[in-house]
Amino acid sequence: xxxxxxxxxxxxxxxxxxxxxxxxxxxxxxxxxxxxxxxxxxxxxxxxxxxxxxxxxxxxxxxxxxxxxxxxxxxxxxxxxxxxxxxxxxxxxxxxxxxxxxxxxxxxxxxxxxxxxxxxxxxxxxxxxxxxxxxxxxxxxxxxxxxxxxxxxxxxxxxxxxxxxxxxxxxxxxxxxxxxxxxxxxxxxxxxxxxxxxxxxxxxxxx
Length: 207
Prior knowledge:
By secondary structure, this protein is an alpha+beta fold. It is 37% helix and 22% strand. Strand 2 and strand 3 (45-52) form a beta hairpin.
């Protein structure tokens, strides 16, 4: 669910670090270098990158279309393909029998089995329709705050890694404790904050 939905969940971050070149030039370079592209490598992820927040099929960003005043608004698109395990198993057995017949071997070596599995999986990936996930984010550059529309750990890790790779900045989650550190100013308040201990709100079993 993104910012154009009727409701959405959201994660807030603070950016940390310095850009090595002009701020807006670095952003433009990061957006374009990290734009969506297909990934030709083993694994379930076959495509990843920035797209237009208004249309996830658009990622050329002509005229800095990602800019809305001081805000950068984009989506992170992730395309994945998952081959059903049973289909993979059946096809591996079929190709194993075929290879044994061709080579006259009684059994395959561990390297042969590994290579055959990878080849079969890659071939099947081309026959499966991809799953497309889109996560919106808005970057308030005037306050160095980023809003990301997912609490999923996997989605957050992908976003944080791609953001760092593209812009050279780390994303620090704005959890309640860190926000308190930011807004509390007096020595007494800061001292009290340091003395706080984590609480476990998980219900305890009744004995």
